[in-house]
């Protein structure tokens, strides 16, 4: 499915809403603690902020500066194709690069990190308005796992990436026991 700018805006909005809504339902222990070496919900949130911020910033640059990364000789891939490729990379063991890995998060960081994510959302959607459909397919940015992506594909990657990390948090939900019980089992 090839998404136009309006559809991209809608999916970005929904992805951010779903992620923020989920984070807001979590108690502090669930925000800060994770099981089995997985990132905590707070770390998932920090990772999204770290990875979205540079894209948001670049979308405000003059398009002339983006020529440094070249222009795309091919049309953008569909959302489905990009997400399939992304899943395959993750399935082959690809991980986040060091600069986007989160540190330890604390309950007091929740408000700050949520505010940062919501601010990025506003900026990203505002900056997207300044792009034509053809420019979304023309200009490219480097992605640490997927190589050079068009701006449209980069926006697809934000949509997928946000859904991916929401899913990671949801997968950590305890089945049949509280988080406190699961933590006690790990500790003792």
Which structural traits does this protein have?
mainly alpha, single chain, 4% strand, 188 residues
Radius of gyration: 18 Å
What is the end-to-end distance?
Answer: 49 Å
Output the helix-strand order: HHHHHHHEEHH
- Overall pLDDT level: 90
Helix fraction, binned, reads 55-70%
By DSSP (H or I, 4+ residues per run), the number of helices equals 9
User: Which class best fits the helix and strand makeup?
Assistant: mainly alpha
**What percent of residues are in strands?**
under 5%
How would you sum up the global shape? Answer: globular
| Biggest sheet record | 2 strands, antiparallel
* Lateral arrangement of strands in the main beta sheet: 1-2
Let me know the number of strands: 2
Q: What ranges have pLDDT less than 50 throughout 5 or more consecutive residues? A: none
Q: How would you characterize this protein structure?
A:
- The chain is mainly alpha-helical.
- It is 62% helix and 4% strand.
- The chain has 9 helices and 2 strands; from the N terminus they run H-H-H-H-H-H-H-E-E-H-H.
- It has helices at 5-25, 28-32, 41-58, 63-66, 79-91, 109-128, 133-138, 151-171, 179-187, and strands at residues 140-143, 147-150.
- A two-stranded antiparallel sheet has the order 1-2.
- A hairpin with a 3-residue loop joins strand 1 and strand 2 (147-150).
- Helix 3 packs antiparallel against helix 8 (151-171).
- The longest helix is centred in the first third of the chain and has 21 residues, at 5-25.
- The mean pLDDT is 90.
């Amino acid at each position: 499915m090839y998404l136009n700018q309006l559809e991209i805006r809608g999916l970005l909005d929904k992805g951010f809403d779903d992620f923020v809504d989920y984070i807001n339902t979590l108690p502090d222990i669930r925000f800060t603690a994770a099981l089995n070496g997985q990132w905590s919900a707070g770390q998932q949130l920090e990772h999204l902020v770290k990875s979205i911020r540079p894209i948001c910033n670049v979308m405000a640059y003059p398009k002339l500066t983006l020529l440094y990364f070249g222009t795309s000789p091919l049309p953008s891939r569909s959302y489905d194709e990009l997400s399939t490729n992304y899943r395959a990379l993750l399935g082959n063991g690809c991980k986040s690069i060091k600069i986007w890995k989160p540190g330890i998060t604390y309950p007091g960081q929740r408000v700050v990190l949520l505010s940062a994510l919501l601010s990025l959302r506003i900026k990203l959607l505002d900056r997207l308005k300044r792009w034509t459909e053809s420019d979304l397919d023309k200009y490219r940015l480097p992605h640490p796992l997927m190589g050079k992506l068009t701006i449209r594909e980069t926006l697809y990657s934000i949509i997928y990436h946000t859904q991916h990390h929401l899913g990671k948090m949801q997968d950590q939900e305890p089945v049949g026991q509280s988080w406190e019980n699961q933590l006690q089992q790990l500790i003792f």
